[in-house]
Amino acid sequence: MRVRSRSDTLQAFSGLQRILIVTDAWAPQVNGVVRTLRTITHEIQGMGKTVEIIGPDRFNTVPMPSYPEIRLAILPARKLARLIEAFAPDALHIATEGPLGMAARRYAIRNGFTFTTAFHTRFAEYLRARTGMPLRLTYSWLRWFHGAGAGMMVATQSLRDEMAVRGFRNIRAWSRGVDLQAFAPEPAEDWQLPRPIFVYVGRVAVEKNLRAFLDLSLPGSKLVVGDGPQRKSLERAYPDAHFAGARHGAALASAYAGADVFVFPSRTDTFGLVVLEALASGLPVAAYPVTGPLDILGAAPAPVGALDADLRQAALAALTIDRSACRPYAESYSWTACAQRFMDNLVPMQGFRTFSDQSETL
Fold first, then answer.
1. What sign for the dihedral angle of Cα 189, 31, 126, 306?
2. Whether 287 and 353 share a structural domain
3. Are 228 and 69 in contact (CB under 8 A)?
4. Which segments of 60-120 does DSSP mark as H helices, in order?
5. Are residues 169 and 280 both part of a single domain?
6. Which of 13, 91, 236, 336 meets the CB 3.0–4.6 Å disulfide criterion with 346?
7. pTM of the shown model
8. With pLDDT > 70 as the criterion, what percentage of the chain qualifies?
9. Is 99 contained in some domain?
10. Is residue 1 part of a domain?
11. Which residues contact 293 (CB under 8 A, 6 or more apart)?
12. To the nearest 10°, the Cα dihedral for 312, 317, 322, 327?
């Protein structure tokens, strides 16, 4: 890695220029973490910064057990170290807790570099759903992982409060945004299904609690847009539902706009980026009153969504909402503001202690 002069370090404090993000979630994966990182990268580059993403696409990988769409890097430490040193970042952000995240954490600690992390995914709850692993064990490991960093970014106030109760420290707020050019009420897909159409968009996986949606007694049609390890089994179990598969770009935007209500059955998401995408597409939202929907819509829900412990009641209530209110509500969420908050949360890799030491010797 390049040796920083005192002027290099001063520049880092006045404005970080070279940002490195290490993530186990990256293309071709399709999820909220990937969309968030891809979008803020574009926004930060627009600020005149240089951003490098190191993901599993640069390494030999194996499929994740029970979730083959996700590839995990095999023994990435040596190559990752070379990539970090070749880029010579001013700030390091570790986005995930997988093999790459672990290797980046070890590298930073071994070299005395500060870094930030993010709590994107309820890993403990997902692991329990798949393996039965007790929450207390996984959260203990997560506290160890994130506790070594200078700050852990979370998407919502309710999640920040929950993590504080669980013993996490140095938590930093980092909300989300929505691409208002990509998602809009028009054009809308003509699904040629009986109306009203209740749609879910996202990964088709056990942690998304899709059965809670598909079990509902609702008029019209149930539509699932997305793919994942549960898709085949759910298609067999719910032959009356329509499974459209994964959509991207303009096809995804029109898929939202062509429905009548967006149903978000997850109880474990840390935000729910798809909620904002649905609203930007003019689609009212029905969800449980949990982290994510509560933070976006409010405890006394905004007039663009319905939150209820009875998801059927929420879906039917959302059906009566004026769609014209949804798009203006989504417009208050800016990716530019999201990217700036991310930048504000970063720390120089050498940190304040190193700067002080250099000041005394120069």
1. negative
2. no
3. yes
4. 77-87, 99-111
5. no
6. 91
7. 0.76
8. 92
9. yes
10. no
11. 264, 272, 275, 285, 287, 305, 307
12. -50
- CA atoms of 91 and 340, how far apart (whole Å): 14
DSSP string, 194-235: PSSEEEEES--SGGG-HHHHHTS--SSEEEEE---TTHHHHH
Instruction: Note the pLDDT of residue 360.
Output: 31
**Which segments of the chain does DSSP mark as H helices, in order?**
6-14, 32-46, 77-87, 99-111, 123-131, 135-147, 157-165, 210-214, 231-237, 249-257, 273-280, 293-297, 311-318, 326-330, 335-345, 351-361
Percent of the chain with pLDDT over 90: 79
**C-alpha angle 234-235-237 in degrees, rounded to nearest 5:** 60
Which residues are 127's β-sheet partners? none
> Higher confidence at residue 266 or residue 355?
266
- Gap between the terminal Cα atoms of the chain: 20
Residue 196, pLDDT > 90, answer: yes
For the stretch 230-258, pLDDT in tens is 999 999 999 999 999 999 999 999 999 99
CA 139, 145, 150, 154 torsion: positive or negative?
negative
- The amino acid sitting at 125 is E
- Partnered with residue 245 across adjacent β-strands are 225
Residues 119 and 230 in one domain: no
Residue 335, token pair as written in the block? 């990716």
CB atoms within 10 A of CB 181: 8
Range of the domain at 219: 197-333
- Write the pLDDT tens digit of every residue in 304-330: 999 999 999 999 999 999 999 999 999
Long-range contacts at 290-298 (CB < 8 A, ≥ 24 apart): 290/266, 291/156, 291/158, 291/159, 291/162, 292/155, 292/156, 292/264, 292/266, 293/264, 294/156, 294/158, 295/155, 295/156, 295/157, 295/158, 295/159, 295/271, 296/271, 296/272
C-alpha 284, offset from chain centre: 21
Residue 130 sits in the same domain as residue 20: yes
Domain at 277, CATH number = 3.40.50.2000
Block residue for tokens 């879906």? 315
Tokens of 247: 């959509």
